[in-house]
């Protein structure tokens, strides 16, 4: 019964914060857009709305550690493993702005999608070449504005906790623009809101930022090596985080089904 009450409260918090947050982000956008064409302030406000949602959710305890970016306007291509929708809330706790590459369907959701547009995030429709090209051009434009971009190279959430193959897009983008890859590792969110479920679960999750991987001097011939190096770094750090959190390989707490 307590779990049901807490889950209901978490949904009330989420829906309320999305609606209230939209008007807050809209106000920041209107005030700042004349001199902040990159929408840095609107984007940061949007991420803080996500952080506030977590703070008010009694079932989630999220934290970040690892590298702290000294210059928030040095552009990186940030890449992370993807376990659940809760990943978005967790990564939003990082104290610098990144523009997110996200599924086009999310941009159609009232209030939430409107905030994503105001924040300057980038929509992409999977499987549509023209949409992918447009999205990559959008990412390039953000990098040129001295903004980092955030991409899930697996392309979708893992169904079983295993790290999926990485796609080329983020690494091609980094090489072609001379931007460092910034690996980010997530652990613990899979149970927070697992794929194909809308149930919140009591969860402790951590987001860890790894050392950047420079791409200056690399060519597209180095793409596969760069992708493999990044995936290996994330896989190794993910296994270490699972040990720290007492999770099994699948991301579930050890002994949960004992």
SSE blueprint:
Layout: H1 2-32, H2 40-55, E1 60-66, E2 77-80, H3 86-91, E3 98-103, H4 104-107, H5 112-119, E4 122-124, H6 129-144, E5 148-151, H7 169-177, E6 181-187, E7 203-209, H8 223-245
Parallel strand pairs: 1-7, 2-5, 2-6, 3-4, 3-5
Antiparallel strand pairs: 6-7
Helix pairs in contact: 1-2, 1-5, 2-5
Describe the structure.
The structure is a single chain. The chain is built from eight helices and seven strands. By secondary structure, it is α/β, with parallel strands linked by helices. The chain has a single domain (2-245), classed as 3-Layer(aba) Sandwich (Glycerol-3-phosphate (1)-acyltransferase). Strands 1-7-6-2-5-3-4 form a seven-stranded mixed β-sheet, sandwiched between helices. α1 runs antiparallel to α2 (40-55), α1 runs parallel beside α5 and α2 packs antiparallel against α5 (112-119). The model has no long low-confidence stretch (mean pLDDT 93).
Query: Approximately how much helix is present in the residues?
Result: 40-55%
- How many helical elements? 8
Low-confidence stretches: none
Task: Output the CATH topology.
Answer: Glycerol-3-phosphate (1)-acyltransferase
**Structural class by helix and strand composition:** alpha/beta
Distance between the termini: 22 Å
In total, how many beta strands? 7
Averaged pLDDT, please? Answer: 93
Major beta sheet summary:
7 strands, mixed
- Global morphology: globular
The CATH class is Alpha Beta
What's the short story on this structure?
The chain is 44% helix and 15% strand. By secondary structure, the chain is an alpha/beta fold. The chain has a single domain (2-245), classed as Glycerol-3-phosphate (1)-acyltransferase (3-Layer(aba) Sandwich), CATH 3.40.1130.
